[in-house]
Amino acid sequence: MNGIYYYLIAFVFIWGVVGIFHNRLSSHGVELNFPTIMWKTQRLRGFISRISNISPRFWRWFMNVGIIVAFGAMIFITWTILSTLPSVFETPAVSIVIPGVDIPGSQIYVPFVYGLIALATVLIVHEFSHGVQAVGEKIPIKSIGLLLFIILPGAFVEPDEEKLKEAKRISRLRVYAAGSIANVSLALIALLLLSMASGAIPYFFQEDGIEIGRIVSDSPSEGILKEGMVLEAIDNHTIGDSKEYVNVVSSFSPGDNISVQTDQGTYHVTLAKHPNNESRGFFGIQANKHFEMVNDSLDSIPWILFELIDLFQWIVTLNLGIGLFNLLPIKPLDGGYMLEILLSYKMSERYYRPIVNALSAVLAMVIVFSLIVGFI
After folding, report:
1. pTM, to two decimals
2. How many Å apart are CA 142 and CA 25, to the nearest integer?
3. Using an 8 Å Cβ cutoff, are 287 and 243 in contact?
4. Residue 357 above 60 pLDDT?
């Protein structure tokens, strides 16, 4: 079953339970306002306050730098999306990413377990950072919780809106920038850990081939090849490492009938058109390096390095990707509010609101267009 159906079943179940038992659940902080379900609690406010009070001066100055970084990232991600428009039909710049689900047009497949863990770090770090900075700016937190917008899950820290509006502009900028800057910071930390784990691989292992890590659904290889097979040769071209694999695979065209020699036998696959380059053949497999252990001084413990590498890769990817996306100058994203505050230093509300609203509409249309093209 396609992974998307498991999500749909879970969401239907949640909506059904909340709809039926709403009166009972409301006493536990659950609110139902279609198309949104929210669960609010005040239990973690003290925890956020303690973190903020560890070093208020550090958080303030860290986020002063963060504001500069955030506006630089805003320019970068906006330019990146706009500059890819000419090639949108070949490689869409934006795609929906759901752990465990193949999304048409998306170049990224996020494993279910690692994806959920990484996504949890995105939400927790992002929202808690908003809360920590809000407390540091003397803006009370009303509640913390989870939400479900139709089928889109999320988390939130709800500051006192009136106090937030009354705060100084620099304070509001720090609060809005805090979430994405925390995501980028976590991505950098995870990148460092990823480098350390990757650096330890050659000490314990050596590459000895290519392994099939995943079969793309509805691809030529589905039902023929299987995950875990080790590729030994493709059309009698020996596959010894990833470089040889890339060179061999890139030489085929759509319609070619290819023999694939694996450690479990020989199979034949008729290639389709590659989603991003119709002149290239498409197998529909995700290939990973296959390793053998050459140093067993720690028994089988070093194998956990590959699990850590996968986890850190997705923590980096999702925190960086979602953190930067949230800085787009689109309301209601944080970047949209930050741009409004910045423009308010030189313009009245009469002028800066139409500018931000127009920019939000244009970028939103570009993103929606890119998503539609990817699905088509």
Report:
1. 0.84
2. 19
3. no
4. yes
